[in-house]
Amino acid sequence: MSSPEIRIAVLVSGSGSNAEVIIRYFKDHPRIKVALLLSNNPQAYALERARRLEVPARAFSREDFKEEGAVLQWLKEDKITHIVLAGFLWLIPRYLITAYPDRIINIHPALLPKFGGKGMYGAKVHEAVKAAGETETGITIHLVNEHYDEGRTLFQGRCKVEDNHSPLEIAACVQKLEHEHYPRVIERWTTGEM
User: Fold this and answer.
1) Is residue 62 a known part of a binding site?
2) Known catalytic residue: 181?
């Protein structure tokens, strides 16, 4: 008997470079399909990336997301089994965590618990890493709960931070780790290997 299909929804707020890497990684996967991309930003370039890669894409408002309604309905209609956050900046509401217990994953561009929490995203994280004089940084892939960046850690990847590295150079190192590891961790997590 074959295993049921794993259907992923990717939630994005911005450009969507991680989303594109994830979509491409699973394009011909025998069990896992990126079935939907959702964004809280109707101008997000991620929506265009998804359409170009033939993945259905929709934008939603804060009202759609806060209250149990449109977003959950779309996820159910598309038979979504797992949710992947890829640069999604809003806190996940309790109703979604209840509907998808331990089936929502996020990637954070630092080694949690350092440099996490509300307001710590993108360039702000890399600037904080530089300002703190850290000698290493990286990524943390974790399950999502009702608090920013506090779910159980599944994976951390590391890279060195040299004295002369700018926040932009730190960001490039971290993005390389994201693209290298996030799809593989998603694959192992969704198939029950971790």
Assistant:
1) yes
2) no
